Amino acid sequence: MNDKMDFIRNMYEDGLVDKKLEEDAWADIRARRIDRLNRDRNVALYGYLVGIENAIKAIRAAELAEEGKGIPPQFVKAYAPIFEMIDDFINAGPGAIQRLKQVHKSVKNRR
Fold first, then answer.
1. Terminus of the chain with fewer CB atoms < 10 Å: N or C?
2. DSSP class per residue in 10-65
């Protein structure tokens, strides 16, 4: 991806691009690239929890839930391993739930 950005930048600097890109346009390009990298990272990390084949659907299920929208069955099914993991904590009892909450608090504070 860096090669593409360099190619575009070189064309611009050499005067081969008729339409001048403003700094805002460059910032938009950089922001989209960062968003794509973050999304790819999230897909990989969700893959550890639900399997890489279900990662994108699980992410979409989480997004729809955050928006308060209905979640299609195929997305719920993709998220099922996470539900099962939570059920395992519930079944293990209060100590396991407390440890889960501690891990969550620790991770949340690192952001």
1. C
2. HHHHTT--SSPPPHHHHHHHHHHHHHHHHHHHHHHHHHHHH-GGGHHHHHHHHHHH
The number of angstroms, rounded, from the C-alpha of 75 to the middle of its chain's C-alpha atoms is 15
* Model pLDDT for residues 32-48, shown as the tens digit of each residue: 776 676 788 889 999 99
First to last CA, the chain: 27
| Complete DSSP assignment for 76-107 | HHHHHHHHHHHHHHHHH-HHHHHHHHHHHHHH
- Which tokens is 80 given? 């099922």
**Cα Dmax for the chain:** 67
pLDDT tens-place string over residues 90-106: 999 999 999 999 999 99
Q: Cβ-count burial of 26 within 10 angstroms (0-12 exposed, 13-18 middle, 19+ buried)?
A: middle
Query: What does the domain layout of the chain look like in residue ranges?
Result: 2-110
Convert the pLDDT of each residue in 1-14 to its tens digit: 567 677 777 766 66
